[in-house]
Every structure is written in structure tokens, then in C-alpha cells.
Amino acid sequence: MIDKPTPKGYKEEDYPPVPTGLNKFFRTFWPWQMIRFVVLNLKVMKIVIGGHS
Questions:
Q1: Which of 2, 10, 29, 48: disulfide with 14, CB 3.0–4.6 Å?
Q2: Which residues contact 27 (CB under 8 A, 6 or more apart)?
Q3: Distance between CA 17 and CA 11 in Å, rounded?
Q4: How far apart are the first and last CA of the chain?
Q5: What Å distances lie between residue 50 and 41, 45, 46, CA to CA?
Q6: Cβ of 26: how many Cβ atoms within 10 Å?
Q7: For every one of its 53 residues, what pLDDT tens digit does the chain have, with 9 covering 90 and above?
């Protein structure tokens, strides 16, 4: 009979990181989300306009 190794418990590195309170705040704070939305759109427009010249 072949001995199978017994499974070990999961290590701390195997679990996903838990967001901090500040991360949760910025993910749900709609004024911050609007600022990030505008910044992202400006970056995309810069790429699109640059490609058409």
C-alpha cells in the first residue's frame, strides 16, 4: 500500500488580501469615483486623439 502524504493546512499567503478601512472608504466614496472616472476618460481620449493625428 502506498502512503499518501497528509494534506497540510493553508498558509497565510494562500488567502486573498483583506482591504483596509481606507480602501473600503475610497471604493464606496462616489466623489472620489467620479474623479477617477474623469481621469481615466482623459487618458483614453489622449490615446484616441494621438492615434488620429
A1: 10
A2: 19, 33
A3: 13
A4: 72
A5: 14, 8, 6
A6: 13
A7: 677 877 777 888 888 889 999 999 999 999 999 999 999 999 999 999 988 76
- For every residue of 1-53, DSSP letters joined together read -PPPPPPPPPPGGGSPPPPPHHHHHHHH-HHHHHHHHHHHHHHHHHHHHHHT-
If you search the block for the grid coordinates 489622449, which residue do you land on? 46
Cα 43 from chain centre: 19
Only one residue has cell 493625428, namely 53
The cell 472616472 sits on which residue? 37
Report the sign of the C-alpha dihedral through residues 27, 30, 34, 37, in that order.
Answer: positive
